[in-house]
Amino acid sequence: MRLVIADDHPLFRMGLKYALMHQGFDVVAEAADGLSALDACRTLQPDAALLDIKMPGMTGIEVCERLRMTHPQVVSVLITTFAEPAIVQAARAAGARGYVSKETDPESLARQLRDIVAHPEVDRLPQVDVPRLTPRESEVLPLLAQGYSNKEIAKNLGVSPDTVKDHLARLYAKLDAGDRTQAVSRARSIGLLH
C-alpha cells in the first residue's frame, strides 16, 4: 500500500515512516505541512494519506477536504493526539475516513490503516453526542460564553432572571456541566460554540 505521511514534527514523521515501512507499507512521500502533503497526493496518487491535524499552512482537515473534492480515491486518515468532539465532527465533514491516535503501537496502526483503506465506506471516526438545544437555550449559550450575568442575559432576551436560571439548569444538565465555565468549555469542545 502506497502512503503519503504528513506531520510537522520531523522526528515523529521519521519514526512513523520507518515503523510503517517495517510493517510493509510503501511510504512514497513525507510532508512537513499540509500544502506539501496535498501536492504529494496530487502528484503521486497514493492509496492513502496519513495526516496530522495541526500543521502549518493547511491543516490535516483542510487537506482531507481538498482531497475529497479533487482526488477522492486517496483515503484520508488523521493521526493525532487531539480527540476533541468538534475536531472529530470537522474531520468527518471534511471526508476523513479514519482517525488514529499517535499513541497507537505500530502493529495496531498498520492493522487500522489496512482496514480503513480496504473498506473506506465504513465510518471509523468516533461518534460524538451533541445535545439538542431549544431555540432559547441556543440564545442563552452565546451570552453565557460572553460572560454575561443572569441579569444581563435576562435583560438581553426580555425574560426574568428566574427564567434564565431555569434555562441554565437545563443547559448544565444537557452539557453535563456543574457551572458556567464547564458549560461553555463543553459547548466549545462539541462544536456548539465557536
Automatic annotation (TrEMBL):
<dbReference type="InterPro" id="IPR011006">
    <property type="entry name" value="CheY-like_superfamily"/>
</dbReference>
<feature type="domain" description="HTH luxR-type">
    <location>
        <begin position="126"/>
        <end position="191"/>
    </location>
</feature>
<dbReference type="InterPro" id="IPR000792">
    <property type="entry name" value="Tscrpt_reg_LuxR_C"/>
</dbReference>
<dbReference type="InterPro" id="IPR036388">
    <property type="entry name" value="WH-like_DNA-bd_sf"/>
</dbReference>
<dbReference type="InterPro" id="IPR001789">
    <property type="entry name" value="Sig_transdc_resp-reg_receiver"/>
</dbReference>
<dbReference type="InterPro" id="IPR039420">
    <property type="entry name" value="WalR-like"/>
</dbReference>
<feature type="modified residue" description="4-aspartylphosphate">
    <location>
        <position position="52"/>
    </location>
</feature>
<dbReference type="GO" id="GO:0003677">
    <property type="term" value="F:DNA binding"/>
</dbReference>
<dbReference type="Pfam" id="PF00072">
    <property type="entry name" value="Response_reg"/>
</dbReference>
<dbReference type="InterPro" id="IPR016032">
    <property type="entry name" value="Sig_transdc_resp-reg_C-effctor"/>
</dbReference>
<protein>
    <submittedName>
        <fullName>DNA-binding NarL/FixJ family response regulator</fullName>
    </submittedName>
</protein>
<dbReference type="Pfam" id="PF00196">
    <property type="entry name" value="GerE"/>
</dbReference>
<dbReference type="GO" id="GO:0006355">
    <property type="term" value="P:regulation of DNA-templated transcription"/>
</dbReference>
<dbReference type="InterPro" id="IPR058245">
    <property type="entry name" value="NreC/VraR/RcsB-like_REC"/>
</dbReference>
<keyword id="KW-0597">Phosphoprotein</keyword>
<feature type="domain" description="Response regulatory">
    <location>
        <begin position="2"/>
        <end position="117"/>
    </location>
</feature>
<dbReference type="GO" id="GO:0000160">
    <property type="term" value="P:phosphorelay signal transduction system"/>
</dbReference>
<keyword id="KW-0238">DNA-binding</keyword>
